[in-house]
Amino acid sequence: MDTPLWLWFAVIAFIVVMLAIDLVAHRRAHVIGVKEAAAWSAVWIALGVGFGVIVWVVWGADFGQQYFAGYLIEKSLAVDNVFVWAIIFAHFAVPPQFQHRVLFLGVLGALVFRGIFIAGGALLIQNFSWVLYIFAAFLLYTGFRMIRQRDEHLNPDQSRVLGAFRRVVPMSDTFHGQRLLVRKGGLIMATPLLAVLVLVETTDVVFAVDSIPAIFAVTDEVFLVFTANAFAILGLRAMYFLLADLVHRFVYLKIGLALVLMWVGVKMLLKIDVYYIPTPLSLAVIATILAVSVVASLRATRGQERQSLPTPAEPPFHIATPDEDAQLEPLLRRARSRERSGTPA
């Protein structure tokens, strides 16, 4: 697959432009409703599918099928990520109007980290082909573990990363709008929103460890691995606001995701020395597993309405009052100096 350097720059530039549009559209903190989330989800899915169609037309059906297989894997695994985010936001009682900013920055960080992981994975495969055995074994183990632990949920209080963050970084117990850092009494402190962002980024890194080897099982093309990841991740924020209140209904989805990981693990093992499973067959198996798990979940829980995850009876943080916001000092001392001297910024 011939992908000139200018094409990489063009795709990255397009991603940056779309992120900027999304940021401008949500520059003011507000609660994102189901209709708005559905509209944005449709936009992101259309972009992802549209790019796949371009790949199909320009580079042929085989590469197009590889892209769609990778996109479907990443999109489906991202749903589990969405459910973990819902648990994190509920645990810390993050106000709905502030959640989009955290997710925007989280997705931005995810794109960077996954780009690094993809480059590292491609380099390992290119120089040490035996690493595919490790990837395949890891996918099989992860799938088996997901089935065994399907009823277990993340407990944010047990996060070592979050614990280390709290010990090292001074932190306020108050949400100050969408600010991540504030200065009070001459001390710069992290707001709870920054702590939540750290936890969101950490969970995405953990999910990337599963998803990156999985997509390498269906395509060796680094360009397809990156673009399938990028277009799947770009729609995560909208997907969260669309599905967060439906977590309780996808009771069999984790089993479906586990079977997908195990399937691509088997595919990778066979691909090394035994037999290459055709991409159309692999795509059909993945789509069937996901469709069955979703339909079975919705049938088993039919009649249940949307419901938010329970939040603590006594939320660990509260939203700042106007008086508390007024006590904040300029974050940068230069800004304070300008204010004192009357010099415009």
From TrEMBL:
Membrane topology type, per the record?
Multi-pass membrane protein
Q: Mostly located where? A: membrane
The UniProt transmembrane annotation reads 6-25, 37-59, 71-90, 102-124, 130-147, 193-216, 222-243, 250-270, 276-298
Which keywords annotate this record? Membrane, Transmembrane, Transmembrane helix
**Tagged with keyword Membrane:** yes
Q: Identify the Pfam families for this entry.
A: TerC
Q: Which InterPro entries match?
A: Integral_membrane_TerC, Integral_membrane_TerC_rswitch
Output the Gene Ontology cellular-component terms. membrane
Where does the protein end up? Membrane
Region (Disordered) location: 305-326
Family affiliation: Belongs to the TerC family.
Q: Which PANTHER family match?
A: MEMBRANE BOUND PREDICTED REDOX MODULATOR, THYLAKOID MEMBRANE PROTEIN TERC, CHLOROPLASTIC
What name appears for this protein in its UniProt entry? Tellurium resistance protein TerC
Q: Which organism is it from?
A: Dietzia lutea
The upper taxonomy is: Bacteria, Bacillati, Actinomycetota, Actinomycetes, Mycobacteriales
